Amino acid sequence: MFSQQSSNGSSSGIGGSSTNNSSTSTPLTEKFTSGTGSVDDHNPLWAYVTVLQSRIGTAGNAKWRCNFCREDFGGSYYRVRAHLLRQKNKGIVICAQVTSEYLVEMSDLEQNATKKVDSIQVPFPTGTTNLNPPIDKNKRRRGTDGPLSMAFSNEARDHLSAQIARLFYSAGLPFNVARNPYFISAFTYAADTNISAYIPPSYNALRTTMLQREKSNIMKLLQPIKDTWVEKGVSIVTDGWTDVQRRPLINFMATSSTGPIFLKAIDGTGEFKDRHFIANLILSVIDEVGAQNVVQVITDNAPVL
Q1: HEC states along the chain?
Q2: pLDDT tens digits for 162-215?
Q3: Which residues are the signal sequence here (predicted)?
Q4: pTM recorded for the entire structure
Q5: Which of 43, 56, 115, 146 could form a disulfide with 60 if both were Cys (CB 3.0 to 4.6 A apart)?
């Protein structure tokens, strides 16, 4: 049960049965949340409302009732957060029943959830495209969440899902691509923003300018590891293998106490892979890494290696 102080100092109950969720277990959440909100690590404030109509996913649109003011609303987690945290100009009235104590508690939960999400994302260098770049509040999609709007929204979701599925089927993409965090974040970002007349990257852009830009991002991410080679040293690791096209490949990696880095793979097709050929490849990699940084060279047990 919620407990809310009235103006004359007496205490009045605010509905909602209690729940005990370990991921957001705090004195207030254990005492003042409703189990029907289905709290989760990324959207913890769902626990402070009672969902009256099923929602799609953890942040989808739903019809819900605030456990503080007992008013009914419609919308996504964005509106739940704005209502409970008393954020003005968010398309929903703020909750007048949330006291400063509850506000601090819920703000802490929201900040902790944001930190958890940020901690599992790959950090891109400053000035480059992040996994979930900040969304301009003025560009966020706006609209009503009434029954008619929700019906059209569900139809649009089904159509978009069908288009995405058709992409997988027609291109023969592995279904595991759907679990790729960048695949998910791309559509999430597009759904949360209003990018007028946006056209996806073209064939040439993906294989030229955008590829070079992403390579630069990766090189910047790896630079802190390379910087430790001068002090701690690095080992060159090489072995030979055959890919699905039956091409003989020789790959090279640099490994140190700060982690391994893939350097390159050489296609040995048409080459006579004797000790001289392998030695020249190893020497070129040593020059690339820096001879002064190399502690040892490790090879597999192939005769020429």
Answers
A1: CEEEECCCCCEEEECCCCCCCHHHCCHHHHHHCCHHHCCCCCCHHHHHEEEEECCCCCCCCEEEEECCCCCEEEECHHHHHHHHCCCCCCCCCCCCCCCHHHHHHHHHHHHHHHHHHHHCCCCCCCCCCCCCCCCCHHHECCCCCCHHHHHHHHHHHHHHHHHHHHHHHHHCCCHHHHHCHHHHHHHHHHHHECCCCCCCCCHHHHHCHHHHHHHHHHHHHHHHHHHCHHHHCEEEEEEEEECCCCCEEEEEEEEECCEEEEEEEEECCCCCCCHHHHHHHHHHHHHHHCHHHEEEEEECCCCCC
A2: 999 999 999 999 999 999 999 999 988 888 888 888 889 999 999 999 999 999
A3: none
A4: 0.46
A5: 56
